[in-house]
Design brief:
Two copies of one chain form a homodimer. By secondary structure, chain A is mainly α. The first copy, chain A, contains ten helices and no strands. Chain A has helices at about 25-45, 55-60, 65-70, 75-100, 105-120, 125-130, 140-165, 170-185, 195-200, 200-215. The N and C termini of chain A lie far apart (about 60 Å). At the A-B interface, helix 8 and helix 10 of A face helix 8 and helix 10 of B. Chain A binds a DNA duplex (30 and 30 nucleotides) through helix 3.
Chain lengths: ~220, ~220
DNA sequence: GTGTTATCTGAACTATCGTTCAGAACAAGA
DNA sequence: TCTTGTTCTGAACGATAGTTCAGATAACAC
């Protein structure tokens, strides 16, 4: 049985940890892919995609390097799957959070919290997502671009909703600019966040971020 | 005569374009280094540091690849000098802009304008600066970190000055967080700026950016 | 047990990388 | 023209990259 991750998902048996004994075959296969992907994310985050080697990733994952090719097609697919997973998780996390509330202000705030919380607990993945945004090519790139646009649209809608709620009118350009500025502010996060120092500031950070984008609507 | 770019600057003769005939030897040497560095910046911006090869850079610069080693020590030094130049230019541009004004609000606005204008006219360099921030090692890395801190401190000071001017008190944490959010918003710029589409929006973008950070101080 | 299929790995292949170097080409002063 | 030092390049180096594959090993059905 072989891998083909762009279209469908194959399933088979393996084990990376002896502990993972009691799993069903499919679960183990998925767990192995997971383990490889998170190791790859860590290595890509540390050395960047271009400077990281398959052998580095295998070492970090504590497996032999040809084993990676049993589960994944090639190096680019590693990056693709890391990115896809991250975006899918971001989208579904955001959607589940904002669905619980109807107040436009609260919805925007929840989106920011959702994005930053995911960022804080998935620093390696986010670093990869942000830095390697255009290291993918062809269908891989197209696929990720689509997801990114989807995610971005959620944010833009929330911003529009919040503006309307405050009786401010934003034209297309303003909405686009403000959305980009907000994503910039949030995506820069991994460059300065140090868990040991900043963990207790988490909600303050999220508040400041909301306050900032909210404030951008004040003076008009 | 040889190169040594961490400490002092060497000088000698060469010519990359026949046009650059009338230059003095030192000027030509510097012009050649410049030409190599800006070609390297373009290639690093396009393919990332890790994926770009010396041969790619030489091709882009239309020179033979060993020639790069006549002027520069190694690949890392290319990245180092690109980064150092960019930061030095950013610092001196910002300083010359804000020195012309004493109003705290205008000074902050001028800093933002300065940063974004530089960004807009040096997209490749900024992309490299932002993405390859930690691809340097040892003294190279230490040197750039120092410059970055210096530049960042300028911004922080301006933010503090502006807050004081509006009778808001910011504690250390808030200042740090807001500075980081502002830099994030600005440094994300290269990911969405398309000259053909956005050139006319330049000052609007800078205004929105200022309004955003100014607005962050409003609601307290 | 045997057979079958899924899983894994050592070894090897080719390409390309960063870097070096011996010497060619060139410029300039004598 | 000859000399001297600077500038440039073709060719080559060792290292390491991504990837493949034949065969070893393990898992399971019978």
């Amino acid at each position: 049985m072989k891998k083909s991750n762009l279209e469908s998902a194959p399933k088979r048996v393996a084990r990376i940890k002896p502990a993972a004994r009691a799993m069903a075959p499919d679960e183990r296969y998925d767990a192995n892919v997971d383990h490889i992907l998170s190791s790859a994310a860590a290595v890509f985050a540390e050395k960047s995609f271009g400077l990281a080697s398959i052998r580095d990733i295998a070492t970090r994952a504590r497996i032999s390097f040809p084993r990676i090719y049993y589960y994944l097609r090639n190096k680019e697919e590693l990056l693709y799957l890391i990115s896809r997973r991250a975006f899918e998780q971001l989208v579904s996390l955001a959607e589940s959070r904002i669905s619980s509330n109807n107040d436009p202000e609260e919805r925007l705030r929840l989106f920011i919290r959702s994005h930053l919380e995911y960022h804080m607990s998935n620093l390696a993945e986010m670093k990869v997502l942000v830095r390697e945004a255009d290291s993918l090519t062809g269908r891989y790139a197209a696929d990720i671009t689509r997801l990114k646009r989807e995610y971005s649209r959620i944010c833009r809608r929330l911003l529009e909703g919040y503006a309307a709620h405050r009786n401010k009118t934003l034209d297309r350009e303003q909405t686009r600019i403000l959305t980009s500025l907000l994503f910039g502010a949030m995506n820069w996060f991994y460059t300065w966040y140090e868990p040991a120092r900043d963990y207790e500031q988490r909600s303050r950070i999220m508040d400041e971020c909301f306050r900032m984008i909210a404030g951008a609507l004040s003076a008009r």
